[in-house]
Amino acid sequence: xxxxxxxxxxxxxxxxxxxxxxxxxxxxxxxxxxxxxxxxxxxxxxxxxxxxxxxxxxxxxxxxxxxxxxxxxxxxxxxxxxxxxxxxxxxxxxxxxxxxxxxxxxxxxxxxxxxxxxxxxxxxxxxxxxxxxxxxxxxxxxxxxxxxxxxxxxxxxxxxxxxxxxxxxxxxxxxxxxxxxxxxxxxxxxxxxxxxxxxxxxxxxxxxxxxxxxxxxxxxxxxxxxxxxxxxxxxxxxxxxxxxxxxxxxxxxxxxxx
Length: 258
Fold this sequence. Notes:
Blueprint: H1 5-14, H2 23-36, H3 42-52, E1 57-59, H4 62-67, E2 74-76, H5 93-110, H6 115-118, H7 129-148, H8 162-180, E3 189-193, E4 200-204, H9 205-230, H10 239-245
Parallel strand pairs: 1-2
Antiparallel strand pairs: 3-4
């Protein structure tokens, strides 16, 4: 007659040996493994312990989290971070580092285009690829000047070639970092005066910084649209790509279903 696994486990528990473990936990893990159709209790031990502690199961394995839904409460990929003391960097540092990196990657792709291709314009966008990049990087230089009052950031973008625009944008990276390293007041008002027509704008620092990122993203998207129209694959420039390349994002491939 076949012996039931649960009976065999009970007999093992009565053997006069020192077995490190908990009988209740082992029985619960065995039941979990049987319910889930698992050949062993390795993972079931964690599920059982979570049940007995009336806790939530935390795992980076999204497939496992989905499988045990309804058995225990899950908290997928949740990490609790506790900060002590001053922050080492500005919260905006990554956002602006991505902003500069993405623009440079896009310019690098466009450097391979012919003069005729650089004149490609798509309806609904700012203009040609070259004009859009000149506008985007020139505006970034102006915004940097407005935020820092440093005239060294100003450029004459309308006459600049792509290689010159790239060099200017590369210089913006350290300049934005130096600004963000300061104890900025998001409510501080910046006074902007157009040197050509006298137009004035008074803008909070927080809004100014948000506008820089929005403006860059908008025009990069337009250039990518033009590249696609040419049959040229745009570079991958989203924030997660930047995070992976800079080591600030780590992706973990889920384990196959047991």
